[in-house]
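Dear colleague,

Following up on yesterday's call, I've attached the two folding results inline so they're easy to grep. Please treat them as preliminary; we haven't cross-checked anything against experimental data yet. The first protein's sequence and structure tokens come first.
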Amino acid sequence: MKLRDRPWAAHPHLEVVAVDLADAGSTRSSLKNCGAAYYLVHSMISAGKDYAAHDLMLARAFAAAARDAGVRRILYLGGLGETGHGLSEHLASRRAVEAALQSAGVPVTVFRAAIIIGSGSASFEILRYLVERLPVMVTPRWVSTPCQPIAVRNVIHYLVAALQVPQTAGQTFDIGGPEVLTYREIMDIMGEELGVGRRLILPVPVLTPRLSSYWIHLVTPLHHSIARPLAEGLRNPVVCRGTRIRELIPQPLLTVREAIRAALQKADSGQAETTWTMAGPLPGDPGWAGGKVFTDSRSTTVRAPAEEVYRTVCRIGGRHGWYANWLWEIRGFLDRLAGGPGLRRGRRHPDSIALGEALDFWRVAGLEPPRLLRLRAEMKLPGQALLEFRIEPQGPDACRLVQTARFHPRGLLGLLYWFAVTPFHAIVFRGMLGALRREAERARAQRKLSSAS
């Protein structure tokens, strides 16, 4: 469902099919008549601490389904790193998935990459936020670990071009950019490209991956459960041991500086197609089977057409903020302290919105242009919460905007939470509704002025 509102989803040669990879029959059926299959699955976000076992199970099921469906080759993007007992759980899991995909006898082309530099990737976001927000960094010793990053456009070229190069079938390739740098050097380049200059970095031996992951959680948008396996992997040198792929698939390889510059330009211009926050299952309506559901519903008349109001509502969050309401900022800060995502995840694009993507500590759970936007809360709460905006046309140049917050408490703590925050709703929700009305009317007046001139 997340893919169906993408601009390319309507291409006549493309079909979007939803498949549960744990269902062997469904996977086998979807792979019928496929000559090649790309396996780009990683369940670190959706499966939590059990991601390694879950990934292994899915890879085995997929390999068997591909064999039974007659798929002639599989292409997989894995992780770079030396084998052995010192390999982090995250990188060891990537190797286990390789073996599972190869177990059914279908030829597998494996590409192993270190950090992939591209707008929206988790590794890129960690680097960007750390450098952007911290003039002084106390870091673990892994900042001196050698790494060979690669630009996302170079990775995509390898993945696509491999289909046209028969010699890549059943082979494993290390892929990387033209430079081997330490993480410290990469952060220096990031600081220069961000315009903040080189940061003061103080490596210390006492910071463990666990402590590092909590620090990353506080400073960046990533939750510590995602940050920890990534931080553990940073202690492993990730350098290519061979360059044969460059002979089979030649292409201009971007330097780290060029890759960072391209990623920043794409992110800042709102052209990033996806972000790491879009991973995981698509949230639907909560499973509210009976029980008390608290509701706060408010409405206002807006002197603007429904399409204009819908556009305004869909711009909420990210850099636009929650319409200058300081209580949202406090709520975001408290959520970060409690282990939630807070307001730092932002949004993929400043104006457009897609089903399943994150808006700070909310996620888009319903989208019906130009009449409905439904958000599901992913902040730390003793219950489940929805925030819904419904637009009801009242003529060509007016409509009614209905804003409804619903909360299903979990136990006594949930009840206490609702009654504790209820006095603030008059400020938070009334203020947001009024700001949305004013913004929509201002945008309508601006459009009319532009068309008149």
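Below is the second protein, in the same order (sequence, then structure):
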Amino acid sequence: MDQQKTHAGSLPDNRDVWRIALPMILSNLTVPLLGMVDTGVTGHLDSEAYLAAVAIGATIFSVLYTGLNFLRMGTTGIAAQSYGATDYAALRTSLGQAAVVALAMAFSLLLAHRPLGAFAVELLGADPVIEAIALEYFNIRIWSAPGTLLNFALIGWFLGTQNARAPFFMFLTINLTNIVLDLVFVLGFGMKVDGVALASVVAEYSGLAVGAVFLVDRLRRHPGPWQLERLTRIRRYGAFFAVNANLFVRTLALMFALSFMTAQGARMGGTILAANALLMNLQNLTAFALDGIAHAAEALVGKAVGARRRDALVTAVRLTLRWSLYFAAALALAYVVVGPLLIRLLTDLEDVRAAALRYLPWLIASPLISVWSFLYDGVFVGATRAKEMRNIMLLASGIFLATWYLVEGLGNDGLWFAFLVFLGIRGIGMHVYYRRTILPALG
């Protein structure tokens, strides 16, 4: 059906957007549920050290895999353009190159995991008992790296081929398997952090198995040759590395900005740090919702660019932007109506509640400002404009720092103002680049 629509030259419509966005939004909703179960099972063990150790270990892997998530984004754009051009040999090359790089990175992590784990755990500076338990968790969970990185590559490739069902079932399998095995290993078998880590390892490979089933079907539907020379010669990876290297730098700049936000909050005391962490959790909820539509933009924009169709590009951007704005407005309204209730549900600490309520207006404004950056991230990933994404993120990070030092005297209000400036500059910058580079490239 996808091929028929492509050859018929029809423009993207709302069904195309939601065929991709809805499964990705639903997939994202399973992520916080998994975190709650991890916290719940370790929180019922006989020492709080286990809960702290899993939190440290999970933080390490979150940072590690967030830094490597460029593999997913880069693969989506390259695959979507090959799909739009109906070049199924190039489509296979995009998958093969992503898989080769994923395995190379995973095996490098496995080879270096002992010094890497020791450095990461020590860097976080916990109690020696907690460090030892966190290291045990790390040394088990690191064996999920090949499965995790191959899943990044597969999910990116599936989205590039306009297929969100496969990623949905992969995410669902990973998270539900993880949740069930958490309960079985820890509550049933009496394991501790080793059970939580082992559950994550098994879950990643379970998701990979599901992805492999969908992959066989997808390749059968789009027959084409495997050009092995493009997989075995390093010089053939030039375009792949160019896209992903820029995405990696862009991701590092984003992680720096988020870490800076946390660090400055910590300097203002434990209450502000806790209140900001609570509000940032709700900001992450905003990201989960808007990212689903951004994934649709990645796939539809990449397909339009690959087919060299300006009308399809403009339609894809307008449709996904419209739905993103609807979602952003709904989230802002939801934070006005139920934000105070959510804060009360998330913490019993009265001083933290009061601080979070004091700064809630910044969270209410956030969806309306950040929506542009989330949507244009998807547009630029689909268009494989990674260099521009890198430049904008570096510029926005620099302006974030400059703004903060100008308004530092305003305290946490100044910090949130600087953060929203950071989000706003990203959206404005990418809009300008979109008008000046992506649109003219298609005539």
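For the second protein, one point worth flagging: Residues 270-306 form the longest helix (37 residues).

Best wishes,
A.L.
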